[in-house]
Design goal:
Helix content is 47%, strand content 19%. Bound molecules: (R)-mevalonate.
Length: 461
């Protein structure tokens, strides 16, 4: 039952404190796919079979492929498609690449392609891998004197942690990676008796989340075991140990790549009509504003992540992890700031990004999802480091495109041109009508209002 409380709708609760609008479901995951759909349609969609048809339309007719997709996740009832586009002409470290981009936002792929074309005859994008270290922690509580714990760690525990994880790390060590370092970190000034085992890892071509978490869970067990044997601790001290959790950190400031472009300001030709010098000056001002103003930095970095995430998704990587890391890095000095930077010294325009990003080209979806396989093949089967470079370039290119528009024509001109088809599709325009609109807006800025006016005029004829 719905009732109005303080001017807002509230679902009233039954005696057992559950809302009365729907009944909870038992064993949903055990229902067949059809059973799940029937339940949802009846319970939430008033039995309307149109909704059932929407779900059916998106099933893949190839049963094996559909099963593969179903098994990526749980309780799957359909597929959620996104456009998969290509931004060609990316000259990256001397290689010409076509970037696969999975993104729903109109104009992201077009902006990337435009930026790639802009830089192709100016030396293209150059990248440097600064470091590839990933991090994880065993977070624990123990009531002992810090120096005593440090002594135990240095002379006993550290060696045991490496030994106890030998079988887990064997494969990774054969591939050139493994655990790089383990440290004891005293955090007790921030929370009473809080310490960490902080480990760094090289996971070579994999993103390494499972590997890192397996090592850390073993650290937690070994820590408990070794403390229980340790004669220098009293029983009370031993009993105070609590291993709170063992988990990788998605903040990887030491797994970082730089991508950059540069050219003489006199070569910075922009077709909007402003001079090269004015373009360079306004562009640098826009970057500086993002460096000092968090409100602008958030949108600026969001634009960068338009480019990064689209390639992250197309290559089967975890965009939530890359987002979390990028924004944590952007705030690393205590104030949220720009991920890109620009200088215009001595007649040279230089624009770059330092992007911390942890991705893989083996494991996870990479060998399973057919489009991920396609993306990686299209990119020439890159190593994880090469993929880091490609992702940083994609973010830098996207930011270049956005700032270029913002400081010249504004973004709406290009954005609305790409959005035009969304508006027309919403209005049910025919193919012939769509063509009319492309011609109509050839030399005009698209606005929602103008599309509707022209659409009504056309239909009235
Ligand atoms: C839109 O998705 C992204 C932009 O707003 C980024 C920016 O303002 O720099 C265009």
């Amino acid at each position: 039952m719905r009732e109005i409380v303080n001017g807002r709708f509230h679902n009233s609760l039954s005696k057992n404190n559950l809302p009365m609008n729907h009944q909870p479901v038992e064993g949903f995951s055990k229902l067949t796919k059809q059973g799940k759909i029937d339940w949802l349609v009846n319970e939430y969609l008033e039995g309307n079979t149109d909704y059932q048809n929407i779900l059916n339309q998106y099933w893949n007719e190839n049963a094996d492929l559909q099963k593969l997709h179903d098994e990526f996740s749980e309780n799957t009832i359909s597929n959620f498609y996104m456009p998969y586009g290509i931004a060609p002409n990316f000259l990256i470290d001397g290689k010409l690449l076509a970037l696969p981009m999975a993104v729903e936002e109109s104009s992201v792929v077009a902006a990337a392609a435009k930026a790639a074309k802009f830089w192709i005859d100016k030396g293209g994008f150059k990248t440097t891998i600064i470091n590839t270290k990933k991090l994880g922690h065993t977070h624990f509580i123990i009531d002992v004197e810090s120096h005593k714990l440090q002594h135990f760690f240095n002379f006993k525990l550290k060696k045991k942690l490496f030994e106890a994880t030998e079988s887990i790390t064997a494969n990774m060590r054969n591939r050139g990676g493994g655990i790089l370092e383990i440290k004891l970190v005293d955090k007790s000034a921030e929370m009473p008796n809080y310490y960490q085992l902080k480990a760094s890892f090289d996971t070579v071509d994999s993103m390494g989340a499972n590997f890192i978490n397996s090592c850390l869970e073993q650290f937690g067990k070994t820590l408990k075991e070794q403390i229980s044997f340790e004669e220098s601790f009293t029983q009370e001290e031993k009993d105070s140990l609590q291993v709170v959790m063992n988990i990788l950190s998605n903040f990887t400031p030491d797994c970082i790549v730089r991508a950059e472009v540069s050219c003489k300001i006199e070569d910075l030709k922009d077709d909007s009509g402003i001079s090269n010098e004015e373009f360079a000056r306004k562009f640098k001002q826009a970057v500086t504003i993002a460096e000092i103003e968090p409100f602008r930095a958030t949108t600026h970095n969001k634009g960068i992540m338009n480019g990064v995430d689209a390639v992250v998704i197309a290559t089967g990587n975890d965009f939530r992890a890359t987002e979390a890391c990028a924004h944590a890095y952007a705030a690393r000095d205590g104030k949220y700031s720009s991920l890109t930077h620009c200088t215009t010294d001595n007649g040279i325009f230089r624009f770059w990004i330092d992007l911390p990003i942890s991705v893989g080209v083996v494991g996870g979806l990479t060998n399973l999802h057919p489009l991920v396989k396609f993306s990686l093949a299209l990119l020439g089967k890159p190593s994880a480091q090469e993929l880091m470079s490609i992702l940083a370039v994609s973010g830098l290119a996207q930011n270049f495109g956005a700032l270029r528009s913002l400081v010249t024509t504004g973004i709406q001109k290009g954005h609305m041109k790409m959005h035009l088809f969304n508006i027309l599709n919403q209005m049910g325009a025919t193919e012939e009508e769509k063509q009319h609109f492309v011609t109509y807006f050839k030399d005009k800025t698209v606005t929602h209002h103008e599309v509707i006016n022209e659409f009504n005029r056309l239909r009235a004829q």
